Fold:
Amino acid sequence: MKSASAWMDIFEATRSDLERVHGDMKRLEGDNSNIRQKRNLAKKLTSARDNLTKLQRQLLQMEANPSGFGIGVGELERRRGLLAELQSLQKQADASINDRSNSNVSFATRRAGGKAAKETEETMYMTDQALVQEQKQTIEQQDEKLDVLADGLTKLKYMGQDINAELGLHERLLDDIENAVEKTDARIQSNTKGVEEIQMKSKSNCCIFIVMVLLLAIIVFLIASPSTLESVCKKK
Structure:
């Protein structure tokens, strides 16, 4: 069986919040110095609206299944009356908020160039002077952010110039390296041709040397063997 006591807990808390909001708004009426407190009251009123919606939904569930919640017809009727009481308190609190909000419509309209601007919880409790001051502070903050952005862009500009100069230096270094490589390649090719020519000359000189050695060997052989020379002559 579901418990119905939670409904009463939410009801008591919501009624207390609505009575406090309504009373405090009446007490602060015409006082523009407690802006933060008025903002907190507006937040409480929003929370109370949510709780009121929750109570309405749970009461419908109780009406659909009274036995499941252990509640009778008389108790249901009593809770309907309590819910109506909360709705009346909510309307009173809303009226207090709307009265203060409407007092700033004229300035909000002037700020928007004749077109009514949407009021927020942050501005509905602020006087015209406070709104002007807030607008000035907002403009000053925007100017500061723009100055920071401009400084950042200037730094990026200088960094780009430095990078461009560095790239130019690297390009010149690469050109020098390429020229050195081309010169070295030309020298290698020239040296290769010289080596090939030397090799060809070496082969030719080697052949001449071999022929001279053979001729010298023949001459030495003939001198060393005169009998052989005579026999050769007799045969002829």
Summary: Confidence is low (pLDDT under 50) at residues 103-117. The CA atoms of residues 111 and 117 lie 8 Å apart.
